[in-house]
Amino acid sequence: MIIEIDKDLQDLFPRYLEARRRDIKTMRDLVDVPDLAALASMGHKISGNAGAYGLADYGKLAKSLEERAKAAEV
After folding, report:
1. Ramachandran class of 8: left when φ > 0, alpha when ψ lies in -120 to 50, beta otherwise
2. Helix residue spans in the chain (DSSP H)
3. Taking residues 42-59, what's their average pLDDT?
4. What is the mean pLDDT of residues 30-52?
5. Whole-number pLDDT of residue 74
6. What φ, ψ does residue 28 adopt, rounded to 5°?
7. In what helix (H) or strand (E) does residue 6 lie, and over which residues does it extend?
8. Cβ 49 vs Cβ 64: under 8 Å
9. Contact 55/23 with Cβ under 8 angstroms?
10. pTM for this structure?
11. Which of 3, 8, 21, 27 has an alpha carbon 20 to 30 Å from 54's alpha carbon atom?
């Protein structure tokens, strides 16, 4: 997979990926609890910043997570 990252963000990309790896573990834990509000919040945050790092598909998945968590909260 080839991704295009804004040159101003290239130095930050490794830290971004590491943070998202930690988020995935956290999200798994939140599913087990379950804490749907926290899942929705994480999905919202990730969907908002993934595109800047060339990860548009990841952002779409995060947006879906946000929407599903919000729908399940009701």
Report:
1. alpha
2. 13-32, 36-49, 56-73
3. 91
4. 93
5. 55
6. -60, -40
7. none
8. no
9. no
10. 0.80
11. 27
